[in-house]
From TrEMBL:
Residues 120-141 are annotated as: Disordered. PANTHER family: GLYCEROL-3-PHOSPHATE DEHYDROGENASE, GLYCEROL-3-PHOSPHATE DEHYDROGENASE [NAD(+)] 2, CHLOROPLASTIC. It comes from Chlamydomonas eustigma. InterPro entries: 6-PGluconate_DH-like_C_sf (IPR008927), 6PGD_dom2 (IPR013328), G3P_DH_NAD-dep (IPR006168), G3P_DH_NAD-dep_C (IPR006109), G3P_DH_NAD-dep_N (IPR011128), NAD(P)-bd_dom_sf (IPR036291). Belongs to the NAD-dependent glycerol-3-phosphate dehydrogenase family. This is Glycerol-3-phosphate dehydrogenase [NAD(+)].
Length: 507
């Protein structure tokens, strides 16, 4: 442990301490000090190992900086994390992976995510570039420490943002009741996820089926859709719309798209215009081609605050508490952030976007593509065919989405590629299951009749063709699915018809 003296022009002294770290390739530990932190006190810094910038705003170490020390009056000026985070100092700390030493809890808390001790090799790395033979290490020492430093910087950045977030208003604190429209698997999963966020919050499922309602209230299980999972104690169900909606601060809409208009018209007088709707339904309305963002205001006959939650999220895995990532899409940034904070947890990551059209079109069309993927699997055409078909389908979704005004980047995000991968490859996908059974020769009517839950892709497929004509976009794979569902082509005929289309340049 070493000590140095910092002197001010007014002859005051301030003793500070810094610790040494092992560093790679014999880098010397050094210190960085910021006169700008105490500019109001007119401190200056004199030290042989430190040089000051001409504007006297930032002082940087001669060697690679490893430690920043804030003690006494230095730290007192930044005794709150908010004040400290807003200074230019924090950026330099994060970028350079500095260690903060301070007796001030708010400042020293930045070190709660401790750095991984830098590994010092006993001998230089091999000229051939082979990795170290030390147990448990894959990379060469120089690469290893860069990786550790990068990870540590990320964790420190995360720490700062979490701290700032905690200082802001958390919607969970003020939310006492949420209503969930629909008691299918995903509506139930969303109810359980929210209920787990706050035990005192009431989460009410609004159902049509009195038997399922009683089952949930007595056994605390949705025995029809998720029989293996016990629901939190603060989840209950009712068939009374007025009872469910009264006092609710948020409404999660999990009713199938094709039933949405009739349902919303039946409760529009009960649902206050100030209660945001969080829609998790994916698809397009048959007959109108409307997305949920268009269908909801049309059914309610008024503008209504809405957020559209989408992404790769099987209900069963949400119930199991497995890590899940979704996107909250809304033109109102603050409302999107509110929903983000309402759902976000250690196992639920919620990104935000303003690209409502992109999120909705991807969420609707991926169900149709999943049927195509299932058909290829049902026909046992192999992985090559499956990958080629999904790649073509992704391009078709992007073509239509961009024509409708979506951002291309949405396609590569959670609601685009993420949801497509899950739905086309995941064994729990309802739409993929429909395709598999079609590929094996079953009739669509028999498949639909034997299914407990709605496969939205079946209804959406025909609507997609209407949109394709409206926006003058060619969608071979998605059109082929509609042909198969309408019994105009067999699954095998559709596949080989697409394979025999003219060879073209990829776009």
């Amino acid at each position: 442990m070493l000590r140095r003296q910092l002197h001010s022009q007014s002859a005051k002294t301030c003793s500070i301490t810094y610790s040494m770290r092992n560093t790679v390739l014999h880098r010397e530990p050094s210190i960085v000090y910021y006169p700008s932190i105490v500019a109001s006190r007119k401190y200056s810094c004199y030290s042989s190992s430190i040089k000051t910038s001409p504007n006297n705003n930032v002082t940087s170490a001669v060697q690679t900086p490893r430690v920043i020390v804030l003690e006494g009056e230095l730290a007192a000026d930044h005794s709150s994390v908010e004040h400290f985070s807003n200074s230019s100092t924090i950026t330099h700390i994060l970028e350079n992976n500095l260690e903060v030493i301070s007796s001030e809890p708010a400042v020293s808390s930045l070190n709660n995510d401790k750095r991984v001790d830098v590994y010092t090799p006993s001998s230089p790395p091999s000229v051939s570039g082979t990795s170290s033979s030390a147990p448990g290490f894959t990379f060469a020492p120089s690469e290893r420490n860069q990786i550790r430093d990068s990870w540590d910087t990320l964790m420190r950045w995360s720490k700062v943002l979490r701290t700032r977030s905690q200082e802001n208003r958390n919607p969970l604190e003020s939310t006492n009741k949420v209503v969930v429209f629909g008691g299918g698997s995903f509506g139930t999963a969303m109810a359980a996820s929210l209920a787990g966020q706050k035990q005192s919050m009431e989460v009410v499922l609004l159902l049509r089926d009195i038997e399922l309602c009683n089952d949930i209230n007595t056994s605390h299980r949705n025995s029809r859709y998720l029989p293996d999972f016990e629901l939190p104690a603060n989840v209950r169900a009712t068939t009374s719309a007025s009872e469910a909606i009264q006092g609710a601060q948020f409404a999660v809409h999990a009713v199938p798209v094709q039933s949405t208009r009739v349902f919303l018209q039946s409760i529009k007088e009960l649902l206050l215009p100030s209660v945001p709707i969080i829609s998790v339904s994916k698809g397009l309305e048959v007959g109108t081609g409307l997305m949920m963002s268009e269908l909801i205001p049309s059914a309610l006959e008024r503008k209504h605050p809405c957020v559209f939650l989408s992404g790769p999220s099987f209900a069963q895995e949400v119930m199991e508490g497995r890590p899940t990532g979704v996107v909250a899409a809304c033109k109102d940034f603050e409302l999107a952030r509110t929903v983000q904070e309402l759902f976000a947890s250690q196992v639920m990551r919620v990104n935000t976007t303003s690209d409502v059209v992109g999120v909705e079109i991807c969420g609707a069309l991926k169900n149709v593509l999943a049927i195509a993927a299932g058909i290829v699997e049902g026909l046992d055409l192999g992985n090559n065919a499956l990958a080629a078909l999904i790649a073509q389908g992704c391009s078709e979704i992007r073509w239509l989405a961009e024509k409708m005004g979506a951002r291309p980047t949405t396609m590569s995000g959670l609601s685009g590629l993420g949801d497509i991968m899950l739905t086309c490859y995941g064994s729990l996908s309802r739409n993929r299951s429909v395709g598999i059974r079609l590929g094996k020769g079953e009739k669509l009517a028999d498949i639909v009749a034997s299914s407990k839950q709605v496969a939205e892709g079946v209804a959406t497929a025909g609507v997609v063709i209407i949109l394709a004509k409206r926006y003058r976009v060619s969608l071979p794979v998605l059109t082929a699915v509609a042909q198969v569902l309408d019994n105009n082509l067999t699954p095998r005929e559709a596949v080989y018809a697409i394979m025999n289309l003219p060879q073209i340049e990829e776009s």
